[in-house]
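Standup notes
- DV: blocked on the single-chain target, sequence here:
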Amino acid sequence: MKYPHFRHTVTGVVVPLSAIKSRKSLGIGEFADLPMLGRWAASVGIELIQILPVNDTGFETSPYSALSAFALHPVYARLDDFPEAANPGDIAALRSELKNRRKKPGTVSTVSGITPGNINFDTVLAGKMRILRSMWKNAAAADIKKAEKWAKNNPWVQNYALFSLLKEENELKSWVEWKEFRNPERKDLSRLWKKKKDKALFWVWLQWRLEEQFAAASRELDSLGVALKGDIPILINEDSADLWAERDNFNRDFRAGSPDGQNWGFPIYNWEYLRSEDYRWWRDRLNQAAKFYHAWRIDHVLGFFRIWAVPKGDFSAWNGYFKPSAPVTRVELEALGFDTGRITWLSRAHFPGNELREIFGDEAGLVQKMLEQVGSEDLWRSRPDGPDEKEAAASPLSVEAREALYPFLRNKTLLSTGEDSFTPSRNYQSTRGWLSLTGDEKLNLKDLFQRKLNVSESLWEQSGRELLSMMKTDGSMLVCAEDLGAIPPSVPGVLQELGILGLKVTRWSRKWDEPSQPYIPFSDYPELSVATSSVHDSTTLRGWLAGEAAEDNELRGVLGLKEDADLSGSAGVKA
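- DV (later): unblocked, structure below
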């Protein structure tokens, strides 16, 4: 969709599609409910609606854990609008079941184990899929032909259909656990399609119909003068059609995370391979999104500059580092006087025998078997190939011993990033190796690390500019970046240069270093900004006012309210 390019400040609303429920929807907000919200928005002067991702996540309720970067979620289907006839009794029965479940708030989901609130996600999805399969049996031959023709213009759907069918045949297990078809080549996929086409066509037909419904809703919003803003996550689930069928696009040796220890579990991209294909996969993904959205939110835009990459054998992120980064080479370390033995001392976790025996007691011998001894010394160290955190977790050690072992495994001054290349660990200044250095050695290493950081920041700027320029190639959708967190110096300039909007969240946009931590005036926000009170993983506006901000007199001043005003009520919201 073409963004209308308003010449004034635009007011918008953010809401998950799942929450836009109407009398016609079946247990959850549906694509066909968007125009209803659009009519209300137009009537009160709201010109943009932002929703969360609507890709197929299966029974996973998080919209950021998709089974496909392209496919839409069947849970948002409006069954009554399908041309294929459904048994009215089936829809009525599902509606009745959902109504009864709402009266039993303690009911626990059989698939996710989550106690549902207003949305019984698993029940809605399972019920809709059951009815959709019965509809598929009524699909006209001419419509199936149309769906096949549509598939030729949407090549992603064939792999998605095969993946969905095989996942179903494997009891919804991840493809890494399948006994067959775990690592298909393109020729294998072609043969598999011929073999399973009759069954897989259900998923093609379903995506064709879902696209019809979503596109129709988007066109109606467009006619109302209301823009639709989508949310495109930077990362994709390992258990997805994209990784299963096109794994060359990804680097499965690493998982994305953040320096504060968060491991998100999603594989990072193989940008070198993607570049060799002129970013075909990403361009296809954005072209698919442009069928529905006038604008889109780049999730974690910082990841296009540099991503915190965590070795796949770890479940925490403490041994991660930014990719790309300028490496510290063995030659450079040797030039500073560090020989092979001392480089090993800095880059591997070491365990003095007395500490092993004191901390692990009777289990010290089990820990030693996972390590290698340094000569004949009473000193052990990690092997070149481990152990990593997952190996330690799978060991016969007690829970207490495993928990004690993890900090040892993270106690490395340098992290190996390749043959004869390293990078400083996040907490290198508190590591055993660092504390053993002389003052001059520390100064020399710090100087080397700073020089590498300077080079890395240039790499990050280059990476961000290249990737974000590619994402703006079409130019039809307005691009908005989620640029929260520890921002590299180059990010604001690149976003400004490319005309990409940044994000300002009122509650976090404060002058934190000043007394009373005043809010940054709205007039000081960059013109190219999305300003909001809340994001999808924070409390709502009312929740913020009633909770975290309840005692915030600085905010009362900004809102023009008295110090004793109750922010939890309508006064705070209306202000």
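- Follow-up: The chain has 21 helices and 17 strands.
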